[in-house]
Amino acid sequence: MLKPEMPIQPDLLDRIHLLDNRELFAQLPDESVDLVLTDPPYKNYRSNRPVAHQKLKRVAVKQFDLPLLARESFRVLKPGAHLYCWCDHVNYPAIRAELEASGFHYKNCLVWVKNNHGSGDLKGNWAPQHEFVLFVTKGKGRAMFGKRQPNVFYRRLEGGTTKFFSKVSNYRFDHGTTKPVELLRIIIQAASAPGEIVLDPYGGSGSTAEACILEGRRFILSEVDGDYCRVAQNRIEQLLNHKS
After folding, report:
1. 65, 67, 72, 171: which sits with the fewest CB atoms below 10 Å from its CB?
2. Is 206 left (phi over 0), alpha (psi -120 to 50) or beta?
3. pLDDT tens-digit readout, 90-114
4. Domain 15-243: which topology?
5. How many CB atoms lie within 10 A of CB 81?
6. Rounded to whole angstroms, how far apart are CA atoms 177 and 46?
């Protein structure tokens, strides 16, 4: 016998919440979310590029509870739903292993090739110019929407040439790891239908919310940092006001 669907409380929808995501997950019923799309603080990060701006806050890996993300995402996602989690080559194995241990089915690794590269070890290593997106499903996985996409993100320009998606400036939203909204829109288009609910438990500067608004999806975000949350809330309000 199928258990009845429990609705999400309306005041949780279409907002970013200044909450630890443990508190947010506790308010979400089982099998109530259509897609999880998130960029967790999977490593310590702070840009050290020489610029004329004040340094941004450090992204701290201690805020990332991987077992909680895996376990609670599996609980709240509907059967067949997708989860997409940003990561790098170092953290990829651990994140994949935890997601699979929580019941997810591994499907693919998507690749974002940036038009510029990070710094890192300037003399003893190759320059990092990519990030990964782990793609897993709850069960076999629902069919993708629209035309089948490659697992490397790029734009096809007139004349058949291609262009990769550039990194978002750290100072556009005062956040060091903001992802391009265009990439998030590609994932949202492929993994959900209009009107469905997208969850981002590490909401950051609100890029997932912007992508959802542009694609006609409902969204729920949480963020523990008050400054980031305010930036995201301003983005959301401006977009919703413009849309109305």
Report:
1. 67
2. left
3. 999 999 999 999 999 999 999 999 8
4. Rossmann fold (3.40.50)
5. 25
6. 9
**Rounded distance between C-alpha atoms, residue 218 and residue 85, angstroms:** 19
- Residue 80 CA to residue 59 CA, distance in Å, equals 32
Please name every residue paired with 106 in a beta bridge, in sequence order, or none if there are none.
Answer: 136
Q: Give, for 61, the enclosing helix (H) or strand (E).
A: none
pLDDT tens-place string over residues 171-194: 655 655 678 999 999 999 999 999
Q: Classify burial at 107, counting beta carbons within 10 Å of its beta carbon; exposed 0-12, middle 13-18, buried 19 or more.
A: middle
What is the spatial order of strands in the sheet that 197-200 belongs to? Answer: 15-18, 218-223, 197-200, 33-38, 77-87, 130-138, 104-113
Q: Which are the contacts of 197, defined by CB distance < 8 A and separation ≥ 6?
A: 8, 13, 32, 33, 34, 35, 217, 218, 219, 220
Q: E strands, 39-96, where?
A: 77-87
